[in-house]
Amino acid sequence: MRRLLVLLGLLAWTLPAFAGEFELPTLRGTETFVPVVPVKAPRWSGLYAGGQIGYNNVAVDGAGATQPLVADMLRVLALESEQHVSQWTVLGRGETRSISYGGFLGYNVGWESVILGIEASWYKLGGTIDLPGNPLSRVVAAGCCTYAVTLNGNSSLAINGYGTIKTRAGWEVGNFLPYATIGMAVGQASYTKSATASGTQTDSNNNVVPFSFSEGENKTGSWIYGVALGAGVDFMVMPNVFLRAEYEYVAFLTFANYKVTMNSARAGIGFKF
Known about the structure:
The protein is built from 3 helices and 10 strands. The protein is 12% helix and 61% strand. The protein has one domain: Porin, CATH 2.40.160. It has an 8-stranded antiparallel beta barrel.
């Protein structure tokens, strides 16, 4: 009997120890699932640069190009002061299409999906526009005389190159960045023009006196200024490399009595630093 009590005491002492070593796992609820957040598309913020090649259409309106020439050469005659021969239109419109090439440098700042920036560019152009001459003949009275006048003009013009400084506003859509631009354009133009006024002067005694006046002007590398509007899209093909397609319209301020507008379509490649 005494041995049985000793055995029961030993069992009572060892069972709690075994129970501590073999704890049953605590039942828990399902752990919270954390989804994998997709990697955000490449950011556009920072400095970038690149090169472009384009197709340009340059249109020139030379209707008033001969006006200062004619006004100067007839300035002492009643023919000009009364009949305003300098305002006769003897030059028409012309245009040329050519390939352009150049580069751009810019900086972007991003707020969420909105991308704002500033960009400078310069492009080299080719092609010369020859404006068609339309001789105009009239018989007019001025002062004491009657004039039979023929006015003629010639002109050619080339935009050697131009650049822009513009602001950009875009909206990031994945790897795409569609954008719009507005800014200032500056270019260099070369032109030549001439005008000739010829005919006869008949006074009240029917004395006929022939006359001919000519004047010309040539300029190379004349600076011109205007406004530039555009739209395009950049596409990020690598973390620091993007492709570009864009359209741009430039309207230059009237210079030397020429009005010049330009439409450009370009494609290019850029590098983000």
